[in-house]
Amino acid sequence: MSYPTDLKYTKDHEWVRFDGTEARVGITEYAQKQLGDVVYLELPEVGRTVKKGEVFGTIESVKAVSELYSPISGEVTEVNAALVQRPEGVNSHPHDSWMIVLTDADASEQQDLLDSERYTQLTQ
Fold first, then answer.
1. What is the block-wise mean pLDDT of the chain (124 residues), using blocks of 10 residues?
2. Rounded Cα distance, 124 and 120, in Å
3. CA–CA gap between residue 52 and residue 6 (Å, rounded)
4. What are phi and psi of 21, to 5 degrees?
5. Residue 34 to residue 61: CA distance in whole angstroms
6. Domain extent at residue 56
7. Which of 8, 17, 71, 104 has its CA 20 to 30 A from that of 96?
8. What phi and psi, each to the nearest 5 degrees, are found at residue 84?
9. How many beta carbons lie within 10 A of that of residue 46, not counting itself?
10. CATH code of the domain covering residue 33
11. Is residue 5, in this structure, part of any structural domain at all?
12. Domain total in the chain
């Protein structure tokens, strides 16, 4: 599996797409394969501030319930309500199925994120 090069990754299998001052967050192809069929997604309220490594929500599949960890600190400015209504979208398009948008992200925290090559090595 090769992972999109325009994303950054965490060891907890979340991805981040940076766009100016915004950062979209989702889970990786690897994570959704480990979970199996996703049936429920709980995401934070808009306006909540999360710290890097903090739980921002949960994802439930037919196999397990897993916590979602914020890859960076920031304020939640958008939640993907359509994905909450149809969480199975994570299974078919994990790298396009963003969950939250963070702003005011701490740029210094980006250095701890993995590029696609390092993430691929982690998941082999």
1. 92 93 95 96 97 96 95 96 96 95 84 95 94
2. 6
3. 20
4. -90, 0
5. 10
6. 26-91
7. 104
8. -60, -40
9. 13
10. 2.40.50.100
11. no
12. 1
